[in-house]
Amino acid sequence: MDQSTTSKPHERLATVLAGEMEAVNRLIRDRMASEHAPRIPEVTAHLVEAGGKRLRPMLTLAAARLCGYDGDHHIRLAATVEFIHTATLLHDDVVDESAQRRGRPTANLLWDNKSSVLVGDYLFARSFQLMVETGSLRVLDILANASATIAEGEVLQMTAATDLRTDEEVYLKVVRGKTAALFSAATQVGGVIAGAPERQVQALYDYGDALGIAFQIVDDLLDYQGDSRATGKNVGDDFRERKLTLPVIKAVARATEEERSFWQRTIEKGRQEEGDLDHALGLMKKYGTLEATRDDANTWADRARAALKALPDGDLRDMLHDLAAYVVARLN
Amino acid sequence: MDQSTTSKPHERLATVLAGEMEAVNRLIRDRMASEHAPRIPEVTAHLVEAGGKRLRPMLTLAAARLCGYDGDHHIRLAATVEFIHTATLLHDDVVDESAQRRGRPTANLLWDNKSSVLVGDYLFARSFQLMVETGSLRVLDILANASATIAEGEVLQMTAATDLRTDEEVYLKVVRGKTAALFSAATQVGGVIAGAPERQVQALYDYGDALGIAFQIVDDLLDYQGDSRATGKNVGDDFRERKLTLPVIKAVARATEEERSFWQRTIEKGRQEEGDLDHALGLMKKYGTLEATRDDANTWADRARAALKALPDGDLRDMLHDLAAYVVARLN
């Protein structure tokens, strides 16, 4: 087998885009510096250096290159996207009162909620400055709309999460806000900055949107059936935090009266007892909702791959294609 | 006496700009609506309808009109500025753990910290969409830079507030972030959208900057010598919250060794006892720092008035002139 089939697609992307990602990382370090407030680089370095997969900036770089871009604004946009992502994580941790992120203590635990809120705001402002530097109003429009979708989705999640009336349509809105809006903006702005034809820009949006949705559905599924050593999360965290995600929403939709009372007590009222998580998992098994959720994730991954057909073929397109498969392959 | 000398300058501005302010308020209500997340208009209405003086959006409208603007983008920019201000207040209340704002319970008390963080983010995103609609990259650049200054100032305040090494230079940076950056952006974008010559745009920036600094110095002074019925705050809140502001910074700069220990214990270590506030006030009196702070506020108000000379004369300029005087007249 050659290297292209053995290594993970995001690792192959990282190899191909290594030079540009280095420029992105330099720009990130440069712009998170603050002459007057050393707390800012402290907090962001903690998170940025912890090193997620840097998937979002790589999507922007890959999209721009795929559309033949040879300028350097895609570096700024990749850093923009990573800043927005990091800012969102900082605010999420305050909202969720999380203690761990990427296997390390969260900033709100190491410093305080104040630092997380304000440094998050600072990163948003920095990302805003970076995108203005590209001089593209279309890019600004896309990122402004993505920001609004993200924020609205977060608020919606807060109020909808413990409400048993939350159906799959509302779940999809939450998921777009939580994950897909930034994925689709990341790919779309890559095409826009490259001056790609509208059909390709739309395809990049569709790819990012579907990839993001598949990614989040898989995340929510792994919460119930993942290996905690691999995911860095404990099985059933969402249940304990009373977050309605797809596997439970599907089970609630088919619940008997007695089962409904169980969901009301544990999710709506949050009165959980020993053994409740096992009972919840039993109900998901009874209705096959984990399998049904996996089917949904596969459908979105298929849509992501289908969208790529409108884009120029080549290595980068192949990697994006494989990435969509890999996102759901995490389930195996 | 005619009406122009008896009523307050911001009330005269409100009268002259009434039609446009109504359009701004309509736009604000329209854009804070959220189809999916009713929590958003609930939280923002609580704050927006509480009705501050709407000084910032009036500054934008006045600046645009003063420079002869007759389009409608200044309405969008005025709403933008108010959204940014409101978002900042929501995040501030989380950071300060405040219980009251504008004489009403804060959103974080009525709802929770989550709502304040996320709805604040939503308002930032909405403000961003509004400014993109003006299609002016210069406006976007100004507001991106103001956002960064605001966020950096907030972080700086958090770390500098309880640090006795904080001097007047650092204080000024905090004040610019906290207040003056949005004032100067508010006036400057009014001139930019009107296509005013660079000299006038600079004058509008200088006016907003100096007005904002005067405004904040007065606020900090009123904390120590204000009438709590008029200010809605208790005397000495900043002392109790261990916030180093100008009257104390000036007293610390001249402190004897014993007095320095007092400031270290009360501000740096936060170990406050009964009678400490009175002792602190005594030290401010001893060195005349309240008077010196008032002199500083007057100097900035003078600078604001001087900047106006570069702008077309007429009623609006007179009102802005009087506004600078009024801001410090709150002290009497």
Automatic annotation (TrEMBL), chains A, B:
Keywords: Magnesium, Metal-binding, Transferase. The keyword Metal-binding applies. Pfam families: polyprenyl_synt (PF00348). It is an enzyme of class 2 (transferase). GO terms for biological process: isoprenoid biosynthetic process. CDD domains: Trans_IPPS_HT (cd00685). The keyword Transferase applies. Its cofactor is Mg(2+). Its EC number is 2.5.1.90. It catalyses: 5 isopentenyl diphosphate + (2E,6E)-farnesyl diphosphate = all-trans-octaprenyl diphosphate + 5 diphosphate. GO terms for molecular function: all-trans-octaprenyl-diphosphate synthase activity; metal ion binding. Supplies octaprenyl diphosphate, the precursor for the side chain of the isoprenoid quinones ubiquinone and menaquinone. PANTHER family: ALL TRANS-POLYPRENYL-DIPHOSPHATE SYNTHASE PDSS1, GERANYLGERANYL PYROPHOSPHATE SYNTHASE. Belongs to the FPP/GGPP synthase family. This is Octaprenyl diphosphate synthase.
